[in-house]
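Sequence in, structure out.
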Amino acid sequence: MASASAFVRRSSGEQAALYIRQLIFDGELRPGDRIPQDHIADALGMSRIPVREALIGLDREGWVRIVMHRGVFVATLDEATVRDHYELLALAYVFAVGRAVAQWDDECDETLVARAADFAAATDAAEHQRQAFAFHATVVSAARSPRLRSLLRAMPRLVPGDFFAVVPQALEYQSERLDEIAAALRARDRDTAARAYTDLFGRNADLVVEAFRSRGLFDPSPDHPTRDTHRRNNG
């Protein structure tokens, strides 16, 4: 199984959820496989309680299916789930730039330009990811909306690990859009910044759909049973 060393700086439930997502994403657990709860708990050095808590969350997110009296199984994701995720992110950041424009100042300008430059100068996937997060966090901070921050914190990451390691094709497009967003906010141009965010997350959705499909995470059959049907047939 995948190394557990990258998952030890989070809460126990977060560690377990991220680890299980990574196992599924890497193909070590395939759709239909039973989740080896004891093995995961041992690999992460924790009890089964946070693993079970993680699985409840992953069931809500569509990564696994909990089947009463039978166990927990890897689910088959679908393209709509990926596209919904990125469309919701786009809507959140369109809201953020709408709020941020009204309160934008020179300090915000300097910070955002520096974040975009740091992203362009990064030399590895992990640093690109850190700088992208820092850029978007600057926009969210300028929006001054605690509810928005809570919403974004509650949204789980769809791609485990370093996003730009999984989809390196996103780098150039991301850099261009960050520059565009920074310039639009400097000009207090909400519409251009909103459009750039929509384009950015739309492009990310396309790339992640391609990555998920290439890893066999989508069911190729158009008549694959829904989650509720699966439970009716097996519960």
